[in-house]
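note to self: dont lose this again. the chain is below, predicted strucutre after it. 363 aa total, dont forget to put it in the shared folder this time
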Amino acid sequence: MMNKKTKLRIALAGAVLVAAAATGTAIAANGSDSGSDSASGSGAGIESKSGGAGKTPGVIKADGANVFPHSLDYDARSKTFFAGSLKHGTVSAVGQDGKVRTHIKDPELVSAQSVLTDRKRDRILVSNVDYGTADRSDKKNPFRVAGVGSYDLKTGKQDWCVDLTAVSLDGKKHLISDVTVAPDGTAYAVDELTPTVYRIDKKGKASVLTRSDLLKGTLDIPDFLDNVGAAAVEWVKGNQLVIAMADGNLVRVPIDDPEKAQKVKLSKPLAAPTAGMELNKDGSLTAVSSGLLSGKPAKIQHVKPGQGWKTATVKVTDQVKDPVTSDVTAGPAGSAYALSGGLADLLAGKPNDGFTLSPVKTG
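---
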C-alpha cells in the first residue's frame, strides 16, 4: 500500500510537469549574488516584455535555488521584494535584477508562509507554518506549528514571535496562511485548517478575534489536505477584514463586531483554489487563484467592492502560464507582480533553481 507521501507525489506529478513546461521563458542572465540564498550559478534578471530594457515591467527570474516562496511583498522605499521560504524558514530580499539574499534568519521559523511589509512601523510580519517539508520540519507530525513573527524591516532582527497554538489550545492541525495589519498596528492572521482569526497587538500579544462557521474549509487537495479554508486576508475600509476562502468565496468580518461576519455576495466566485490577495490603492482587491489542482494557468482577478463590501464584482484581468502561482503584490512604478515559487516541486520532493515574478494586469 502506498503511503501518504507517495500518493501526494503521484497526485501532484501532473502539476509539476505543467509548471516546468510553462516556465521555460528565456531570461536575461545577470549572474548570482554571493550573499544569496542560492549557491547556484543559474541566470537571473529581468526580461522586458517589449524587448528593450526598462520600457515595460518584465519577468524577474530570481536566483534563489530551493527557496520555494509562497508569498511576497514589495517595499517601495528600498525597491525590494521580500519573499518567504517554505523550505528554509527564511525571508529573502529580492532585487529587481533577480538577485536574492537572506534578510531574516530566525531559528523559530520553520516555514515562512505569509510575508507582509508594514512600512509605517518599519517591520516585516511573517507567518510560521510547517508542511512537513522544511529543513526544520517535524516530518512525522506536520501542521502543528502556527505563529506570526515581527522583524525589523532594515536589519531583519526579530522583535517578537508568537506561538498561536498556545492561544488556540485545541490540539488541531494549523496553517497560518496569511496576515494583514490595520492602521493602528494590530495584526490579524487567518488559519487555513481551523475557522479562526487571531488578533495580535503591536507587542506580539495574541488572542482569538473570532471562530466562525463561515470560515470552515470545504476544499480538498487530494492525498494532502482536506477541508482547506481561509487562504488570504486583507484589512479594508470600514475597519473590517475581507477573507478569501480557498473555495472561491469571500467572507467579510467587522472587527468591532465579528459575530456579524457574512459572506460577500459576489458577481461570480473567485477561481479555486484562491491563493493570495493584494489591497489596491482604490480599495479594491487583486486576487490570484492557483492552477495547482487543474494544471491550467493561474488566474488574476480584480475584485471591486459595493455596499461596504457586502457585495463585490469579480473580473478576470490576466493569467500566469505557470499554474502553481501563489501570490500577487504591487511592484515598482505602479506595476503588479505574481509569484510562482515552485510549490509543486517542493511538495513532490524535487529541487528547483529559483522562482519567478511575472508582471500582471490587475484592473
